[in-house]
Amino acid sequence: MFKKSDIFILLAVAVSFAVSGYLWFNGQQSEGLFTAVWVPSILAFGIYFKLAALAAQKE
Q: What is the reported pLDDT for 2?
């Protein structure tokens, strides 16, 4: 069901989310917010390449 690339994208999202929470709760709120912005960016990156791969298969 999941390809290796999907797992790497989800792993990157999970690591980014964990680092963001760690920074936020250790008093570094601005760094935590900066890292939290990466989560939707990484997801959008993964979705874009997933759709590009699906479009290439249909051609």
A: 81
Q: Scanning the structure block, which residue is given the tokens 């993964």?
A: 46
Mean pLDDT, the chain, rounded, equals 94
Predicted pLDDT at 47: 94
Q: How far apart are CA 11 and CA 42, in angstroms?
A: 10
Let me know: does 5 contact 49? Beta carbons within 8 Å: yes
> In this structure, what are the phi and psi dihedrals at residue 3, rounded to the nearest 5 degrees?
-85, 170
Do residues 35 and 6 lie in contact, with contact meaning Cβ atoms separated by under 8 Å?
no
Chain length of the chain: 59
What tokens were used for 57?
């298969």
| CA angle centred on 49, ends 17 and 12, rounded to 5° | 20
User: Whole-prediction pTM value?
Assistant: 0.83
